[in-house]
Amino acid sequence: QVQVVESGGGLVQAGGSLRLSCAASGRTFGTYAMGWFRQAPGKEREFVARVEWSGGSTQYADSVKGRFTISRDNAKNTVYLQMNSLKPEDTAVYYCKVMRSGIDYWGQGTQVTVSS
After folding, report:
1. Which of 25, 45, 69, 77 would staple 82 via disulfide (CB 3.0–4.6 Å)?
2. CB neighbours of 114 closer than 8 A, spacing ≥ 6?
3. Number of other CB atoms surrounding residue 24 within 10 Å
4. d(CA 25, CA 30)
5. DSSP class of residue 43?
6. How many Å separate Cα 39 from the centre of its chain?
7. How many CA atoms lie within 13 A of 70 on its CB side?
């Protein structure tokens, strides 16, 4: 069983920064990538960023390029999302997804609220 736990959400003013963390339990063997998604009220869940576990290649949604940075710590089975220059439209529940051995594992989500 893989457990995925996010942390680091909160309330911040526009222009501020937050760093989210996502820790995955269990061995890393078979992990292909880890990523972040978000879901705002009344909207569908959308892709934010992801990082490949072995090579470290990253991908970002256009809406966050240049503001968000995803990184990983293989030894800690943890992925981070550094969010800078936050905007009110970044307000959402942020979910971490672990892609391991062909199965997706999701965390419970962490709320990020950006006030104008």
Report:
1. 69
2. 11, 12, 13, 14, 16, 86, 87, 88, 89, 90, 91
3. 23
4. 13
5. S
6. 12
7. 25
